[in-house]
Amino acid sequence: MAKGIEVSINEKSFVFDALKQGIRLDGRKLEDFRNVDITLGDEYGYVDVRLGKTRVVARISAEISTPFEDRPFEGLFTVSTEISPMASAMFENQRQSDDELLISRAIEKAVRRSGALDLESLCIIAGSKCWSIRADVHFLDYDGGFIDASCIAVMTGLQHFRKNDITVSGEQIVIHSVEEREPVELSVLHVPICVTFAFFNPEGVEENIKGESNNEIYIVDTTLEEDLLKDGVLTVAVNKNREVCQISKAGGLPMDALTLMDCGRKAYDIAVELTNQIKKLLEADYKRRNEGIQYKLRAENDRITVE
Amino acid sequence: MSIQADTSILNRVDGSATLKSGETEIIVSVSGPIEAKPRQELPTTSALDIIIRPDIGISTTREKLLEDKLRQVLTPVIIGILYPRQLIQITIQVLQSGEDKEYTSKELSTIINATYLALIDSNIGLKVSFAAESFAISTDDEIITAPSRSQLKSSKSSHIVSYEISNGKATKLLFSDSIGTFSENQIYQILDLAATKVEETHQIFRKTIQDKIEKDFIWQL
Amino acid sequence: MSRFEIYSPEGLRVDGRRWNELRRFECRINTHPDSSDGSSYVEQGNSKVICIVNGPMEPSSKAEMSTSKATLKISLNVTPFSSIDRKKRSKNERRIQEIVTSLKRTFEQSIIVNKYPRTTISITLHVLALDGGLLSSITNAITLALIDAGIAMYDYISSVSAGFYNNTPLLDLNQLEESDVSFLTIGVVGKSEKLALLLLENKIPLDQLESVLAIAIAGGHRIRDLMDKEVRRHGDLRLSKLANK
């Protein structure tokens, strides 16, 4: 297999002509998101996400560490996104390409900077001890949509993860094992979902800049082939509360502002659907885990959650 | 102990395999022979690029050491002369390590086994089959095959043994690595035990490969 | 919340502007005529940026040469004395790298790159003072410097930031506002409503996005006019020199 993947001119015009007629090679409509297949592992915080042929595994882990000096009341949260040649030979080991940089920045901004994880709840003793939560994203197979898939994986992982319960007495911290005490979940404030749009310009560059036609095509959730042919890309991270957490259109084909607004609304619809899917999955997993004796022995009362 | 193996699971590489043995789960991809960078190029044989990535955290010296040990296992087995000046890139992703960071025996034995399957899947020429097994000696001098996380933690020593296998029989010792205190007698016991265990494991792999070939050649049926 | 009042009930911001007012925007082109092919200096409020363009020229290595188009090389230097905390920013910082990549991809579309095959256009940026609007001021500086270098472009890319605070969109934020207000930065193509660049890093309600975008685009057009004025002023000066010869 070659290092870079090149798409021939014939393939390119084939894909373009199909797009102009509103058809995509895998039979999806232009605005369809691929089916997301999420599998939760036996261990807490192990999530395997498949988006078409793309496959991403996220591992969430926690350890106790010291907070930053300028933020004594906050815990630490790191997202590690390094792409190995396993995903595709176009990614080199330990050398970050521009695309890789944009992928990791997009995830970082969507998940970390939007405050999806409540960092203050991770504080144990102000200024000296805090939880450090780590999300390792492993990219196993690549067919486009890395940002979207890894965002889903990390957010599902954070909600699925349980950290060991602790007791604090003065400066002493006791970490209780899972057998001893029910582990506690992380406080996830909202669930941002990334949706990536790709833009194609069926006409010349001049028409795009000067013309009034606005014939540019946008499609949701590209496969690798579409991804290599695209003229521009837009990633929107949005949560169920209609808050846009991150938008990144780093250059590429200039697009009309109204089209971009349309993309935002489409992204919201997709995000709501995915958030519900994740929620259902987590509930099913919770039920499965708490079947039998442990469920009855729980000290905590059943709370009624009001939506 | 349960072993679950599957091959040809990834799309963008030439060969891939996932192996779950007990608590440890590994996924391996092989790309090759591909073009090597000029500085990697070896004029008479193929260059091996081995990347091991941990399940949690970034790769450290621990992973580098594992890479080096795996290289020792693979170099005599791969027919490098078939692919001069070319590169065989092996990427190993640990999905669940199943042991604490200070141990490597379960991880390494699973990695060796998974790499074997991935190499077969990628059709890279191999001189001989191979398989590995991990062992531990408990405090009451009992030899445990494929120890669990807790057994490993309470053990006196941990061992990895890998044999070459031809015609279903373990023939030559390929790799052996031990950490901890143990007697000469015990290591010989382990080596003997390993030969039979590795043969058993090999039978499971043969089945996996048979399934894979049946799947690959379904168009001929 | 900080001690400052971001937007007072009287409708005034920290620096006395109304919601839809730009900061003082001043620009010069051809500031370094001897050391570069194109140069510009942009002041957007208290942010000051120098941009130097060299090229199109022979690429330094074969590897970065493209047979079909010009390659852009951008280096961004945020000086340690540009902000109050005097932090040394490495060029390899991921945020800086992201800005550089975004700029590269923006200008690859607006420069007519296929006119200059087998060449490199190198853009060097120095941020002398930073008071918010890092991305927007450097984008404007690059546009001007490229025009000064005589490199063919489809249109101006004018860039400005806009935020959203307490149900009011705010145009062109300074550093103080940036730290408290969620904001986006856009790059508008010429007088159109097309966006080459759109970056948002904090939370904005989806339904308010349109109003923020609208004032940002209006602000972008205003900046385009100001840049155009400077380009024409410089052009007239050049012409008059030619006529006097």
UniProtKB/TrEMBL annotation, chain A:
<comment type="similarity">
    <text>Belongs to the RNase PH family.</text>
</comment>
<protein>
    <recommendedName>
        <fullName>Exosome complex component RRP45</fullName>
    </recommendedName>
</protein>
<dbReference type="GO" id="GO:0034473">
    <property type="term" value="P:U1 snRNA 3'-end processing"/>
</dbReference>
<keyword id="KW-0698">rRNA processing</keyword>
<feature type="domain" description="Exoribonuclease phosphorolytic">
    <location>
        <begin position="190"/>
        <end position="268"/>
    </location>
</feature>
<keyword id="KW-0539">Nucleus</keyword>
<dbReference type="GO" id="GO:0000177">
    <property type="term" value="C:cytoplasmic exosome (RNase complex)"/>
</dbReference>
<dbReference type="InterPro" id="IPR027408">
    <property type="entry name" value="PNPase/RNase_PH_dom_sf"/>
</dbReference>
<dbReference type="GO" id="GO:0034475">
    <property type="term" value="P:U4 snRNA 3'-end processing"/>
</dbReference>
<dbReference type="InterPro" id="IPR015847">
    <property type="entry name" value="ExoRNase_PH_dom2"/>
</dbReference>
<dbReference type="GO" id="GO:0000176">
    <property type="term" value="C:nuclear exosome (RNase complex)"/>
</dbReference>
<dbReference type="GO" id="GO:0005730">
    <property type="term" value="C:nucleolus"/>
</dbReference>
<dbReference type="InterPro" id="IPR050590">
    <property type="entry name" value="Exosome_comp_Rrp42_subfam"/>
</dbReference>
<dbReference type="InterPro" id="IPR001247">
    <property type="entry name" value="ExoRNase_PH_dom1"/>
</dbReference>
<dbReference type="Pfam" id="PF01138">
    <property type="entry name" value="RNase_PH"/>
</dbReference>
From TrEMBL, chain B:
<keyword id="KW-0271">Exosome</keyword>
<dbReference type="Pfam" id="PF01138">
    <property type="entry name" value="RNase_PH"/>
</dbReference>
<dbReference type="GO" id="GO:0000177">
    <property type="term" value="C:cytoplasmic exosome (RNase complex)"/>
</dbReference>
<keyword id="KW-0698">rRNA processing</keyword>
<dbReference type="InterPro" id="IPR027408">
    <property type="entry name" value="PNPase/RNase_PH_dom_sf"/>
</dbReference>
<dbReference type="GO" id="GO:0003723">
    <property type="term" value="F:RNA binding"/>
</dbReference>
<dbReference type="GO" id="GO:0000176">
    <property type="term" value="C:nuclear exosome (RNase complex)"/>
</dbReference>
<dbReference type="GO" id="GO:0071038">
    <property type="term" value="P:TRAMP-dependent tRNA surveillance pathway"/>
</dbReference>
<dbReference type="GO" id="GO:0000467">
    <property type="term" value="P:exonucleolytic trimming to generate mature 3'-end of 5.8S rRNA from tricistronic rRNA transcript (SSU-rRNA, 5.8S rRNA, LSU-rRNA)"/>
</dbReference>
<dbReference type="InterPro" id="IPR001247">
    <property type="entry name" value="ExoRNase_PH_dom1"/>
</dbReference>
<dbReference type="GO" id="GO:0071028">
    <property type="term" value="P:nuclear mRNA surveillance"/>
</dbReference>
<dbReference type="InterPro" id="IPR020568">
    <property type="entry name" value="Ribosomal_Su5_D2-typ_SF"/>
</dbReference>
<dbReference type="GO" id="GO:0005730">
    <property type="term" value="C:nucleolus"/>
</dbReference>
<dbReference type="GO" id="GO:0034475">
    <property type="term" value="P:U4 snRNA 3'-end processing"/>
</dbReference>
<dbReference type="InterPro" id="IPR050080">
    <property type="entry name" value="RNase_PH"/>
</dbReference>
UniProtKB/TrEMBL annotation, chain C:
<feature type="domain" description="Exoribonuclease phosphorolytic">
    <location>
        <begin position="155"/>
        <end position="218"/>
    </location>
</feature>
<dbReference type="GO" id="GO:0003723">
    <property type="term" value="F:RNA binding"/>
</dbReference>
<dbReference type="InterPro" id="IPR050080">
    <property type="entry name" value="RNase_PH"/>
</dbReference>
<dbReference type="GO" id="GO:0005730">
    <property type="term" value="C:nucleolus"/>
</dbReference>
<keyword id="KW-0963">Cytoplasm</keyword>
<dbReference type="InterPro" id="IPR015847">
    <property type="entry name" value="ExoRNase_PH_dom2"/>
</dbReference>
<dbReference type="GO" id="GO:0016075">
    <property type="term" value="P:rRNA catabolic process"/>
</dbReference>
<dbReference type="Pfam" id="PF01138">
    <property type="entry name" value="RNase_PH"/>
</dbReference>
<dbReference type="InterPro" id="IPR001247">
    <property type="entry name" value="ExoRNase_PH_dom1"/>
</dbReference>
<protein>
    <recommendedName>
        <fullName>Ribosomal RNA-processing protein 41</fullName>
    </recommendedName>
</protein>
<dbReference type="GO" id="GO:0071051">
    <property type="term" value="P:poly(A)-dependent snoRNA 3'-end processing"/>
</dbReference>
<dbReference type="GO" id="GO:0071028">
    <property type="term" value="P:nuclear mRNA surveillance"/>
</dbReference>
<dbReference type="InterPro" id="IPR020568">
    <property type="entry name" value="Ribosomal_Su5_D2-typ_SF"/>
</dbReference>
<dbReference type="GO" id="GO:0034475">
    <property type="term" value="P:U4 snRNA 3'-end processing"/>
</dbReference>
<dbReference type="GO" id="GO:0071038">
    <property type="term" value="P:TRAMP-dependent tRNA surveillance pathway"/>
</dbReference>
